[in-house]
């Protein structure tokens, strides 16, 4: 960020607001279907896969936690990459991350309508679908424009419903099965291929925590609150995921063949009332993920604008509400268009690899950024550079698993982003007043 530019966003986010962003980035719709796939690939040993994935993702979270403690400006991974590797890499990180998030938002908006369709199928097609998307995208845009406090409050309400549904499932399972809920681990040990597939799938279920790192410019005390919020979120969610898997295995004997594992578990534990309650939990879960995405992702274009990599329009702050209103409105409109036409399948292929690149560059930024900081400043990880190396290792492994289609489309977007960056820089030079010779 240019030194002379000061952010105008008010610092109203405490630790629990940041925690809500991280938790809702982590818990979307995926956990409601993952237990069945995990059981199919690794059987009775699937709880160990959750533990393995927690250990794989934890070094990456720790790298985000350290870097988040150093900065008081908005941007998260964009800020870290810019400081460590220069403005071009920072722009590419922001460009790729933004596209992957707007595509995910559009896809989750459609998923939300499918979930609501459980009660009224009129929202899944035709005019009803369009009107409902207008309400979802327009409503979330409005809430975020009128203030960060309102957005975080709505996120808190949705999180209560989401966590309540999942915790009720866990508590009922434990109370009903008691000690018998612990798997016996008597089945055949899964082969290396299935373990790898399950680990790859589940590791992506731990993505989204980085949402909490983006609005540093609105955090009351980012150096203290951001690392703590990230760590509390990943530990809490990892524990919840593990308990959900164990309960699902006990409640649904044929879990491996289930396409709706948590619904089946809820039905087994509470009957049709349980299924109904869990559907509400799914709606709240997807809704919370959408609110968190709407809050954080527009801050990426806001950051790039105040860094001079995008038109200044994206960096303007509403004088009344003190929010990056232009970036929020643009994001909401773009997500609505993608959700309406659904012509973003090729963009969806970039989402996986884009996130992996963001994680890899963030871990790689730790050594360089740490050297630039004053001694004893921030949350410094122990063991030297062990955790950044482990994080890069996990990211590299994930990158090697992505499809050639994802790699191709992501490379194309990187080239397009480079072109846009060069054009933006050239325009900046042209707009600068020329010095006259004496």
Q: What would the average pLDDT be, to the nearest integer?
A: 90
| Biggest sheet layout | none
Strand content: under 5%
Number of strands: 0
How helix-rich are the residues, as a percent range? over 70%
Write the CATH fold name.
Answer: Amino acid/polyamine transporter I
**Any idea what the shape is?**
globular
Estimated radius of gyration: 22 Å
* Count of helical regions: 16
Outline of this structure?
71% of the residues lie in helices and 0% in strands. The protein has helices at 15-26, 34-42, 46-68, 77-85, 87-116, 126-145, 148-177, 192-204, 222-251, 261-270, 272-296, 298-306, 325-341, 345-372, 386-401, 404-431.
Walk me through this protein's architecture.
With 438 residues, this protein is mainly α. It has a single domain (15-425), classed as Amino acid/polyamine transporter I, CATH 1.20.1740. The protein contains 16 helices and no strands. It has helices at 15-26, 34-42, 46-68, 77-85, 87-116, 126-145, 148-177, 192-204, 222-251, 261-270, 272-296, 298-306, 325-341, 345-372, 386-401, 404-431. Helix 4 (77-85) crosses helix 14 (345-372) and helix 7 (148-177) packs parallel to helix 9 (222-251). The model has no long low-confidence stretch (mean pLDDT 90).
């Amino acid at each position: 960020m240019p030194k002379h530019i000061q952010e105008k966003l008010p610092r109203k986010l405490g630790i629990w607001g940041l925690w809500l962003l991280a938790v809702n980035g982590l818990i979307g719709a995926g956990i409601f279907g993952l237990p069945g796939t995990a059981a199919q690939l690794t059987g009775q040993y699937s709880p160990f896969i959750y533990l393995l994935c927690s250990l794989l993702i934890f070094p990456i979270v720790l790298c985000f936690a350290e870097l988040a403690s150093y900065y008081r400006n908005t941007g998260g991974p964009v800020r870290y990459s810019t400081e460590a590797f220069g403005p071009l890499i920072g722009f590419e990180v922001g460009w790729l991350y933004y596209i992957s998030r707007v595509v995910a938002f559009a896809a989750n908006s459609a998923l939300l309508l499918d979930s609501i369709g459980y009660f009224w199928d009129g929202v899944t097609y035709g005019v009803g679908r369009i009107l409902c998307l207008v309400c979802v995208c327009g409503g979330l845009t409005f809430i975020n424009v009128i203030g960060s406090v309102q957005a975080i409050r709505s996120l808190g309400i949705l999180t209560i419903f989401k966590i309540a549904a999942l915790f009720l499932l866990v508590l009922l399972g434990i109370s009903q099965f008691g000690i018998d809920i612990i798997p016996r681990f008597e089945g055949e040990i899964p082969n290396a291929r299935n373990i790898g597939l399950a680990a790859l799938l589940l590791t992506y279920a731990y993505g989204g925590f980085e949402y909490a790192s983006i609005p540093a410019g609105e955090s009351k005390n980012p150096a203290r609150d951001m690392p703590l919020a990230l760590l509390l979120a990943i530990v809490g969610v990892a524990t919840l995921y593990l308990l959900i898997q164990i309960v699902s295995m006990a409640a649904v004997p044929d879990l491996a063949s289930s396409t709706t594992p948590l619904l089946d578990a809820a039905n087994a534990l509470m009957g049709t009332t349980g299924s109904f309650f869990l559907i509400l939990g799914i709606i709240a879960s997807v809704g919370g993920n959408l609110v968190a995405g709407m809050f954080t992702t527009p801050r990426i274009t806001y950051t790039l604008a105040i860094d001079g990599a995008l038109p200044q329009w994206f960096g303007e702050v509403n004088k009344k509400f003190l929010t990056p209103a232009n970036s929020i409105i643009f994001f909401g409109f773009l997500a609505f268009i993608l959700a309406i036409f659904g012509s973003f399948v090729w963009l969806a292929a970039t989402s996986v690899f884009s996130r992996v690149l963001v994680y890899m560059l963030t871990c790689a930024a730790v050594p360089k950024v740490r050297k630039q900081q004053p001694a004893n400043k921030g949350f410094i990880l122990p063991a030297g550079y062990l955790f950044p190396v482990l994080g890069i290792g996990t990211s590299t492994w994930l990158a090697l698993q992505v499809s050639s289609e994802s790699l191709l489309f992501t490379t194309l977007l990187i080239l397009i982003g480079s072109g846009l960056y060069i054009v933006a820089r050239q325009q900046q030079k042209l707009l600068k007043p020329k010095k006259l010779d004496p």
